[in-house]
Amino acid sequence: MKRSLLLCVSLFFFSIVVRGQRSPLYKDAKASVESRVSDLIGRMTLEEKVGQLSVLLGWEMYEKQGDKVSVSDVYRKAQADQHTGMLWATLRADPWTKKTLKTGLNPFLAAKATNALQKYAVEKTRLGIPLLLAEECPHGHMAIGTTVFPTSIGQSSTWNPELIKRMAEVIASEARLQGAHIGYGPVLDLAREPRWSRVEETYGEDPVLNGAMGEAMVQGFQGSDLKSGKNVVATLKHFAVYGVPEGGHNGGSVTVGERELHQAYLPPFKRAVKAGALSVMTAYNSVDGIPCSSNPVLLKDILRADWGFNGFVVSDLGSISGLVNNHQVAATAADAASLAINAGLDADLSGYGYGSALADAVKKGKVSQAVLDTALARVLRIKFEMGLFENPYVDPAKAAREVGKAANVEMARKVAQESLILLKNENNLLPLKKDVKSIAVIGPNADNIYNQLGDYTAPQSDQAIVTVLKGIRARVGKTVSVRYVKGCAIRDTTIDEIAKAAEAARNAEVAVVVLGGSSARDFKTEYQSTGAAKVTASDVKVSDMESGEGFDRSSLDLMGRQLQLLKAVVKTGTPVVLVLIKGRPLNINWAASNVPAILDAWYPGQEGGNAIADVLFGDYNPAGRLPVSVPKSVGQLPVYYNQKKPTPHDYVEVDSKPLYCFGYGLSYSSFGYSGLSIEKSGSNNSLAVRVRCRIRNSSSKDGDEVVQLYLRDHVSSVVTPLKQLKRFKRVHLKAGEQKDLSFDLNTEDFMLLNSEMKWVTEPGEFTVMIGASSEDIRLQRVLEL
User: Fold this and answer.
1) Residue limits of the Fibronectin type III-like domain (predicted)?
2) Which of 113, 153, 471, 586 could bridge across to 609 with cysteines, CB 3.0–4.6 Å?
3) pLDDT by residue (tens digit) across 568-587?
């Protein structure tokens, strides 16, 4: 009896205690983010802490059976053994992941999948910490059913940051609706080495243009409220100096001076950080012998101390273990983990760079609890700021309704239109005459879906992509005869329809020849469980892929039989329009001398065919400008416009100038420049310089002009560039219209790093130049400071 009474009393008081218990502070939405972060860290084990810093491959974490999707055994094990807090590429689909249109997830199922993963993390783990889901988002969310925009090199060819900001808003919204929280991008590497495989992912060769585009992407991705349900965290790539590897070898070593590092390669990242970017990815390469994934000067001194970055740093895939295997600066996995995290690298993209190796490093005293907790806090802070502890789920029906909607597709067409660069238009061959009756559409990129989209692209339904052939046929309808002949492949020389293509051109009024390159991975191949391809007799022997991550080149020549095809078509005497679809500058010297019209499209995205047809027939007046110089020969490299003084001299075989310079591009309109004036106020430490000019559309066609402002420092204490872009504006002018433009410069625009590595504005003369390209300077005046 006493025992029963005692039990009842105990249960009574226990129930009072339970009813009176407060939930953990980290679950209190009214508490401050910092107090919640601190409370949660205080409750975590070493293994749970390490798990939050390990980003596992996400596409293995769900199972799909028809219209049902659930968490996989792989995910359950990852939570039980590794306590994972982040996943990458959960919704990615491509040959590597072996996710196809059939085995991958449409937007509705993608949202259901991420909800299932979150529900398990919240309800089935000890602390209930929601996941952070990162996705590839450089030119659209790399998932099935999303909108595919032009690749970054095409985006920067618009010279329109405001448009790119609106594009980024669309990309972020489509990713967030499906449950993603982080978008990998923008890529801010300078593309001064066109042999390098990833030029298409960059914004070109110039720090000012790259910085403007990077800032626009960050603002579009992140918005002003991460709890909005339509914004994602931007991850800046690749920190730093990744785009100029020796020999063009992807991930190869880089040797640049400290002054060049700060004046050219770091400014785009700094501008994006100042715009609020909350994540940065380290690069695979080393800089002057120090791997970027273990470089405390980059990650601590510059990124955090100098720039005030308060987000988290993540490795590129496998780059922490690369300290052992590739760079060989660490002997063991634990040594690599300690080098990375002690240098300021917070999270591991791979799951095996940190994981047990980091736990081992902590236990051995190679990494302090303070260092570990600091990295952890940076990651957890994002989860709280996004409101994931309160609402980790998304609405599948809304994802199905909003992702890839008509307005987003129209935005893709707009970006593609503005990205197109008219390189040549002899005798005004373009726009094509309205009464044209027959067109030959020729070339390996005229009707190839994946060659048009670039790297980091998910599988696509045929209906979603408009190729050049489809765009032309849709534009002219049935009133014009359109005959298509492939002619050849990009690389495979066994395909030879050149005679057939020449015949088609001979019997047409105009020939549109679509050549270039490809970053297309093989989406049609079926794969075995081991990842090996099931090859059939109908497969081509050589893929088209000659660009895209890892596909570095030793030459820039058109590959395969493409030049032979072009020469055969030109020889017929039929007027030829060359359309280039590619991921890097290519050798088009022969075309520049022999083809009357050339249109550069880079990889123009899913609406590329419509945009190209719009330009060919004059429904859109092109105004794209080159964000990178086009060399005449690899022997000229590097050939970027803002090289250091003195002026390069000519070679025995060829002059030193590029075939087409940075900032170059033609229009169906013509523009006049006049009225340059400069007003200066303030001292060298607080300068305000306003530059004014007048632009007039002197033609009968409405059009856009990209007005570019460059500076040249006459005499400086250290060597400076021949000229440097400082400001630009894309302005629309109706036929005959004129507009007054103004550009505001400040002290920073005139600064240099002096011999003592201090930023200073030196007195002296500067030439202010206004022009239509880096070589087409229309107005200039000397300004004295």
Assistant:
1) 705-774
2) 471
3) 999 999 999 999 999 999 99
